[in-house]
Amino acid sequence: LSLEEADFLLACEPEDERLHWFRDNAFQASLGLTVGTNVMVKEEDEMLMGVIRYIGPILEPNYVNPIRGRFFGIELQKPDKGKGKTDGSFGSKTFFLCEKNCGIFAPSSRVKPLVPTPVSPSMAQLHSQQQAQNIFPGDNVYFFIDDKYRFGIVLDIQEDGGQHIVQISTIIRWIGRLPGREDKMVGLELEEACGVSDGTVHGVRYFDCPPKRALFVKLMSCEDGNHDTRKLETVPPISTEQVEKLLIGRMKGIQGHCNSCYMDSALFLFSCSSVLDSMLFKATTPQDAPIQRILLHDIVNPLRKGFVQGQDIMRFREQLQKHGYCQSFTTDEKDPEEFLIIVMHHILVLEPLLKKVQESYCYQIFLDQNHSLVLPTVQQLLEHSFHSGGLKLAEVPSCLILQMPRFGKKFKMFSKIIPSLELDITDLLSEPQQCIMCGHMAVEECADCFKEPVFSQTGFKVFCKTCSTQVHSHPQRLSHQPAALEVPKGYIDRGIPHSLTRDRLELFAVLCIETSHYVSFVKHGPNTRDWIFFDSMADREERDGFNIPEVQACPEVGMYLEMSPAELANQVPRDMKGVAKRLFCDAYMYLYRSTSMCLYR
Predict the structure, then answer these.
(1) b/e per residue 287-309 (b: at least 16 CB within 10 A)
(2) Is 517 labeled as catalytic in the residue annotation?
(3) What span, in angstroms and rounded, lies between the C-alpha atoms of 550 and 536?
(4) How confident is the model at residue 240 (pLDDT cuts 50, 70, 90)?
(5) Engineering a disulfide at 430: which of 139, 286, 309, 392 sits with its beta carbon 3.0 to 4.6 angstroms away?
């Protein structure tokens, strides 16, 4: 037993495990670890990713035993940062520097190199055993390309004869037979530089491509990846019961890339709702069919399974740019409504969500300068906007997309807006109305009474002839000028209608913006607190520079929605719990759906 071996073994506890560890081949490999090596360290039955920052003693020497034991000081790396117990110090001494709770001191028996080095046949067997650890789709993993480790998420696993197979998408550049090979081969050009050549084999060129982008494989190993031949698979929206399992966590939702948050936040609306699914299946032109297929196969379906890669969003943006809808779709930041309008109107030629009176896919709320709203609800904003514009809905929309009043992306007209979980649009429809006083058929509407504080805070002020005369006989209302309503023939003499059905829409999503960055809130269930928050660029991987999306549950939103307007007005935004402040203070677009009409459109 060498002095170095004894030093490492002395750090191991309990004592009876030292002999067992000494006989383990992995012990010899641990002797070769150096500062800067990427390793996995065991901490409370969990394997954590880290980098060795220190090797040596951490205990004070004593006369009886001058050998103090040699430990590894490890700085934890993402995604395991914060799971440690130190900042690099032990006792009163600092052995290396790292963030708080990002360091661990561990004996050699708990430390393994990220890539085990087979120093003997038995070590090779150990390597094989470690490779055989079970992994599942959705797991965060580290993998290697050209001896450099990278961080990613498992999207799919396929097995063939006990081997794990990873499928890649590529382009066939050559088909034929290579010297010395009986099987027909194909030359592939890869999207990334993870191949073996530039299109040459043993000095003979078969096709041209950049270095390390070529790969030669058997023809039988390839399958047709043409999207045109694939079956139109449909994945249903994620139910409330599945949200925790499929959506919540890091590397979930849609991965952002290169100013894509406007598109990511809008596309995330497909995750838990089918109200916009007509976009996915409506017949479109041959030119735009590939865009629709990418939207369904590469974005919506994977999203409803938990995750969409940034490269799939970029391919979608490239298709939009290629077909001439905008020459900066792959680079510049845009507004979500601009993206939605292009997809709905220009590509899929859907019927407008609002039509006949004013055809549009989104409705921008405008307010006149004389409004008295301070802490408005969405219901009040919509009614005031329709009132000032003299607008009516021709029919109940399947989906109503409302843009909040703003002056540009930075200036907000209101510090807070109270989301209306239900939007009563009965008074906004161009249909017969009930008198707000007696319930008879309304024949007149008064724009001046709309702003009267004596009436309710919401709803248009419509009256039958008798009630209108009485209301406007008051000295303060003598100057009011009620206008006649258009009532279809046959309705005038009906008197009191039998219980008028109220037409209501329910809120299912909110898009928010702060400092040009878009995020989404989605209501996934019937309860007030069934809310999730999505940010496609919640974090960034330092090594490879890719964005880490995150979906988190935010029941605190429901807690604030249950408050009265007076209680909510007293809330200080910076003190609001979780991400609730962003919903109430940064709302940019509200999306409502009709649970009945969305079944038909």
Answers:
(1) ebebbbbbbbbbbbbbbbbbbbb
(2) yes
(3) 6
(4) very high
(5) 392
Q: What mean pLDDT comes out for the span 163-186? A: 76
Q: Which residues contact 204 (CB under 8 A, 6 or more apart)?
A: none
Which DSSP symbol is given to 393? B
Give the contacts of 201 (CB within 8 A, at least 6 positions apart): 178, 216
- 390 close to 372: Cβ distance less than 8 angstroms: no
Q: 261, 435, 512, 554: which is the annotated catalytic residue?
A: 261
Percent of the chain with pLDDT over 70: 75
Average pLDDT (274-290) is: 74
Residues 6+ apart with CB under 8 A from 62: none
Residues 326 and 58: their CA atoms lie apart, in Å, by: 61
Residue 381: CB atoms within 10 A of its CB come to: 24
CA distances from 181 to 50, 184, 191, 200 (A): 44, 8, 26, 15
Higher per-residue confidence, 392 vs 457: 392
Token pair recorded at residue 310: 């940034």
Q: Which residue has the tokens 């070529």?
A: 214
CB 521 within 8 A of CB 532: yes
- Alpha-carbon dihedral angle through residues 111, 117, 120, 124, given to the nearest 10 degrees: 90
Residue range 327-344: mean pLDDT, rounded: 70
**CATH class (in words) of the domain with range 3-131:** mainly beta
Compute the mean pLDDT over every residue in the chain, rounded to the nearest whole number.
Answer: 78
Q: How far apart are CA 518 and CA 536, in angstroms?
A: 9
Most confident of 119-133, 532-546, 554-568: 554-568
Q: Is 498 a catalytic residue?
A: no
Tell me how far CA of residue 75 lies from CA of 32, 36, 63, 236, in angstroms.
18, 10, 32, 43
Q: Which residues contact 419 (CB under 8 A, 6 or more apart)?
A: 377, 378, 507, 510, 561, 583, 584, 587, 590
- For 23-57, the pLDDT digits (tens) are 666 777 778 788 888 888 888 878 888 899 998 88
Name the more confident of 229 and 64: 64
Domain-by-domain residue ranges, the chain?
A: 3-131, 170-224, 240-357+504-599, 430-500
Q: Does 483 have pLDDT greater than 50?
A: yes
CB distance 199 to 206 below 8 Å = yes
pLDDT of residue 371: 67
Question: What's the pLDDT at 125?
Answer: 44
Q: Distance between CA atoms of 176 and 188, rounded to whole angstroms?
A: 12
pTM of the complete model beyond 0.70: no
List all residues 6 or more positions away from 334 whose beta carbon is below 8 Å from its beta carbon. 262, 263, 326, 328
Residue 6: CA atoms inside 13 Å, Cβ hemisphere, count? 7
Q: Are strands 363-364 and 399-403 parallel, antiparallel or unpaired?
A: parallel
User: What pLDDT sits at residue 9?
Assistant: 82
Q: Do domains 3-131 and 240-357+504-599 have the same CATH topology?
A: no
Q: What are phi and psi of 149, to 5 degrees?
A: -85, 145
Tell me how far apart the alpha carbons of residues 393 and 398 are, in angstroms, rounded to a whole number: 12
* Domain 170-224 grouped into CATH 2.30.30.190: yes
Domain at 240-357+504-599: CATH code: 3.90.70.10
Beta strand 587-593 with 547-553: parallel, antiparallel or unpaired? unpaired
Q: Residue 164's CB: how many other CB atoms inside 10 A?
A: 11
SS3 386: helix
Please check the confidence at residue 392 and state whether its pLDDT lies above 50: yes
